[in-house]
Write a structure and sequence with these properties.
It contains 14 helices and 10 strands. The chain is of the alpha/beta class. The strands form 2 sheets. The protein has a 5-stranded mixed β-sheet with strand order 2-1-3-10-4. A 5-stranded mixed β-sheet has the order 7-6-8-5-9. Helix 3 packs across helix 12, helix 3 crosses helix 13 and helix 3 packs across helix 14. The protein is globular and about 60 Å long.
Length: about 300
C-alpha cells in the first residue's frame, strides 16, 4: 500500500509540473498560485470549484486538479506539498488519520478541533467546517425494498446474503462502508462488485447488475422515486461536514485572504446547496465548474 501511494504521489507531482506547477514552495507562493485538488468523484470536484472561485475572488491565482484519486493519494500529496488545498469531509478524514476518531463526537465543531490538532504537526491547517454535510448512503431499488418491507439498514441484514453490492474500490476497506455494515449491522452480501463511478452505480442498480449501491446521501440521482436510500438507523455514519484543509505554509504566506475566502464559503454552504450542485452535474449535465458558477451567481 505504501509503495502504491508513493508511486501515485510521484505521478501526481510529475503531472502538476508538466501543467506548469512547481514543487518549489517559495516560487509558487511568490507567484500567488494556490493548487486546489479534488477527490475522484463529481461532488468533490464541484466543491473544489466552488472554493477555488472564492480564492480567485480574493485575488489569488488558482489552479485546479480534478479527480486526483482517493484519500490515500490526495492527503499525502497535500502533506508533501504537491497540492495546497483539499475540500474534505470531517468524519471520514478524521477516521482515515486515526481509526475511531471520526465517531468520537456528534458535534462537528469538536470534530473539526480534533482534526485540526491531528493535522497541525503535519503541516496542515483545518479551516471552519460548513453546515453542508454528505454521508455515505446505501441505496436499493424501491421495488426491492417494497418486496422485503425494507426501509433501514437493520432490515437489509436479513436479505443481504442473497444480494449483490456495488461501490467504489476503497469501499471494501473503509470503516464507514463494507466493514462498518458488517460490524454494526451484520450485513454480508452474496457478492461485491467494484463500480468505476457513482453514475455507473446508479445504472447497475437500474439494470439489476447489483442490488445495493453505495451513493452519497446528497447524490442528485436520489430524486428518482425508483431509488430508495436506506435509513442508517444505528448511526454507522459519522458527521461529514464539508471542511477545507490547507497546507499551513500556504495559509501563512497567503494570509487572511485565503483563510477568509474559504471560511466565507463554508459559512454559506448548506446541505441543500450540495444536493442542488449534484443535480446540476448529474441530472442537468453541467460541468463541476459550471455548477459552481451557478452557485456563485445565486449569492
Amino acid at each position: 500500500m505504501r509503495l502504491r501511494v508513493l508511486t501515485a504521489v510521484l505521478l501526481l507531482t510529475s503531472a502538476l509540473c508538466a501543467c506548469g506547477g512547481s514543487p518549489d514552495d517559495a516560487r509558487r507562493v511568490e507567484e500567488g498560485v494556490v493548487r486546489v485538488a479534488s477527490y475522484d468523484f463529481p461532488e468533490n470536484q464541484t466543491l473544489a470549484e466552488v472554493y477555488a472561485e472564492a480564492l480567485r475572488r480574493a485575488g489569488l491565482e488558482v489552479s485546479v486538479q480534478h479527480g486526483i484519486g482517493t484519500r490515500e493519494v490526495v492527503l499525502p500529496a497535500l502533506e508533501q506539498g504537491v497540492v495546497d488545498v483539499v475540500v474534505d469531509y470531517l468524519g471520514t478524514a478524521s477516521d482515515f488519520l486515526e481509526p475511531g476518531a471520526g465517531s468520537a463526537h456528534a458535534d462537528p465543531v469538536l470534530l473539526q478541533e480534533d482534526l485540526a490538532r491531528t493535522l497541525a504537526p503535519r503541516g496542515m491547517t483545518v479551516t471552519a467546517a460548513a453546515a453542508a454535510e454528505d454521508q455515505n448512503g446505501f441505496v436499493v431499488l424501491t421495488d426491492l425494498a417494497e418486496r422485503h418491507g425494507m426501509t433501514t439498514l437493520s432490515q437489509l441484514a436479513a436479505v443481504a446474503p442473497g444480494l449483490v453490492f456495488g461501490g467504489p474500490p476503497e469501499c471494501v476497506e473503509r470503516r464507514f462502508c463494507l466493514p462498518g455494515l458488517r460490524e454494526v449491522y451484520g450485513v454480508e452480501f452474496a457478492a461485491v462488485r467494484t463500480m468505476p463511478s457513482r453514475v455507473a452505480t446508479v445504472e447497475a442498480l437500474r439494470t439489476g447488475e447489483i442490488d445495493v449501491g453505495m451513493l452519497e446521501t446528497t447524490d442528485g440521482h436520489l430524486i428518482d422515486a425508483s431509488l430508495l436510500l436506506l435509513r442508517d438507523d444505528r448511526s454507522l455514519q459519522p458527521r461529514e461536514n464539508v471542511v477545507p484543509i490547507v497546507r499551513t505554509a500556504v495559509a501563512e504566506e497567503a494570509g487572511e485572504r485565503l483563510r477568509g475566502a474559504l471560511e466565507a464559503v463554508s459559512a454559506q454552504l448548506t446541505t441543500i446547496d450540495l444536493i442542488r450542485l449534484n443535480r446540476a452535474v448529474a441530472i442537468d449535465g453541467r460541468t463541476p465548474r459550471e455548477a459552481a458558477a451557478q452557485w456563485w451567481d445565486g449569492r
